[in-house]
Hints:
By secondary structure, this protein is mainly α. 52% of the residues lie in helices and 6% in strands. The protein has helices at residues 23-26, 30-52, 65-68, 72-88, 118-138, 147-155, 164-171, 175-184, 197-205, 208-219, 231-240, 244-250, 260-267, 299-307, 319-325, 330-336, 345-351, 356-370, 372-378, 382-401, 408-414, and strands at 8-10, 91-95, 98-99, 102-103, 106-107, 110-111, 116-117, 271-273, 296-298. Strands 1-2-3 form a 3-stranded mixed sheet. A two-stranded antiparallel ribbon has the order 4-5. The protein has a two-stranded antiparallel sheet with strand order 6-7. A hairpin with a 2-residue loop joins strand 4 and strand 5. The chain is elongated and about 110 Å long. It starts with 7 loop residues before the first strand and ends in a 13-residue tail after the last helix. The model has no long low-confidence stretch (mean pLDDT 90).
Amino acid sequence: MTDETPALIIDEHTGAQPWEHPDAMWRKVERLRLMRMRRVTGHRVLPFLQKLDDPASRKLAGKHLADLEVDAKLMEVALRLTDQTLADGGLIFQNAGQDLPFDNGEPQGPLGACGMTWAEVKHHYLHLLTQMIVTEGQSHHKIKVKGILEQRLAALAITDLSQLPRLRQMARFHPVALSEMNHGLHGHLEKILDQEEWLIDALLKLHPIGFLQALRKGLGNYFDRLFVWSPEFLEAVAEGLDHKAKIIAMGEHLLLIEDPEVVRAFGSWAMRELPLPPEKTSSKKKKKKRKRKPPVETRIAQVKAVLGRKFDIFLSCTPGVIREAGHWTNDQLARITDYLPHMNSHVLEALMPLPFDQRIGLIEGLWYKLGRDYVESHMKTPPGTAVIERVVKKLITMNERGSAPTDLKSVLKSSDLFDDCMGAFLK
């Protein structure tokens, strides 16, 4: 806004023509309102903005409203210049000769003869700008959006020009990725526009099926919780869980983990391919043969199926404990399952230096030596875990010498060989 350029006044008659009767209808019928609004914009506002345009670039010079409506960059320039002009007082809106009140820098009430508020006018052009950017971004993909996704994108509109960088990122998403996020966000694609640019950029680089679809299936109704993940955690899920089957297997348990290294530890658990099931063929019509991928089975899913809710014990364990647990056989898992509710990461870590048979023998022996109350109530407290640490230390020395008892459970139960390790728990 310059001193040489007087303010543009838009009053309740701006945009109306003498032959447009009845006037009330032109202020209410949507199509007629838009005609008047475009007339005000194209014949009054745009020429005014052209006078204020940056002299060095003059991007709006010689342009008509129709040019802006098909060019996202020109539309952005015009909208930004409009916002600045409003803030500088270069646009004045009046009804019945009185200036309209402003709230948060924007005029309140209907503007000009179109009967539309500034919020409605701005939404119209922001929606148009959004659609141009989305169309341009999607034009680079061979697969085209359709159906419900097409409807969701058609309804999408930014609410503020500050969202433009994120919109341009979002517009580049592969249609399959957009479809998965649309499902995961229950149709609220606009939530993506509220996220930080690093997150949108990270999601843009991830596989639509191998990551986004897997995460949608794994997290279910909590898919939008990925928006609160740190860059390190998102990277751990994407890289550590290196197959979509592992992401699906972890499922909502991912929401209970805070340490990215714990996610990577679960990702180290094994996975194997299963034999392909017989292919169903139609007797009426032979379908074109396509390469079939064998189904896979993850150790994560197997252990969760065996442990049920006891699987949660691993979520608070150290990465080292989790990696080691991933190597337990089915038989070993069955033997330790009943004791897991009474353990924590410290107990499991204290037992790790021993062969698995000795771990079970130690716990069972302590059950008989110190009683059920010790195992169920005290074993995972610091004093209780210290008992295990002392026994383990003694056993390591005996293992090195070859003098460790073969039946540790019986020795703990019926002898005083390890009594010096029991501390105050020995009665």
